[in-house]
Specification:
A hairpin with a 5-residue loop joins β5 and β6. By secondary structure, the chain is mainly beta. Strands 1, 2, 3, 4, 5, 6, 7, 8, 9, 10, 11 and 12 form a twelve-stranded antiparallel β-sheet that branches. The protein contains no helices and twelve strands. The chain has one domain: Immunoglobulin-like (Sandwich). It comes from Thauera humireducens. This is DOMON-like domain-containing protein.
């Protein structure tokens, strides 16, 4: 099976590599006969862009990876679910510069998803309910896996068009040996912490109609 080709509009995109937290336990320790294998993941790339319909699109791709050594949640009915981070899932954090609040998105290969709103670091807004659901697509083959999450504008923070959002991209990879690997663009603490605001190191400008007069 071949993975689908991304169907992207002609808009600016950002692609960046994620890396595992330094505390990640090796998949296979070194022996006299072979070197250590640090992870079943060869490369984890993330791409994001603002779509003309106001959505934000995030793509995560495992490349040159030992997919057989990773636990991939089985496909199920698309719906919201909690604790997706206990298994393989991909995550996006976004906030407005200068404001303490932010939003967390969890995307599972199963098709399940979660959106959480926070007033400040780990201070969750319990009364928050998402106004719209993301659309997820997932595919895998022998050495690669790909997930696309299209987040509609109604699920994004309420900001004017053209606002730059601070973004953190991350992933949890569950291995067949039971270990969890924590991947992010930047790790800023001794233990994995995707909520650390200084790890939101990317910027995504929400869609705004081009000014043809310029």
């Amino acid at each position: 099976m071949s993975l689908p080709s991304p169907e992207r509009p002609r808009v600016p995109t950002i692609t960046i590599g994620l890396r595992a937290h330094p505390t990640t336990a090796p998949l296979q320790p070194a022996t006299d006969d072979r070197p250590a294998v640090s992870s079943p993941v060869g490369m984890l790339l993330a791409t994001m862009y603002a779509a003309p319909d106001g959505a934000a699109v995030f793509e995560f791709k495992l490349e040159d990876s030992r997919i057989e050594a990773i636990r991939i949640p089985a496909a199920t009915e698309p719906r919201p679910a909690d604790a997706l981070w206990q298994h393989t899932c991909f995550e996006v954090f976004m906030g407005v510069k200068g404001e303490p609040g932010y939003r967390e998105f969890n995307f599972s290969p199963s098709g399940q998803w979660a959106i959480y709103d926070f007033r400040a670091c780990r201070e969750r807004s319990e009364d928050y309910a998402a106004d719209a659901a993301p659309e997820l697509r997932f595919a895998q083959d022998d050495n690669a896996a790909w997930l696309e999450a299209r987040v509609p504008s109604a699920a994004l923070p309420a900001v004017p068009p053209g606002t730059e959002l601070e973004i953190g991209l991350a992933a949890v990879i569950e291995r067949k040996d039971g270990e969890l690997e924590y991947w992010a663009v930047q790790h800023v603490a001794e233990q994995p912490d995707f909520h650390a605001r200084n790890s939101f190191v990317l910027m995504l400008k929400t869609w705004a109609e081009p000014d043809c007069k310029k």
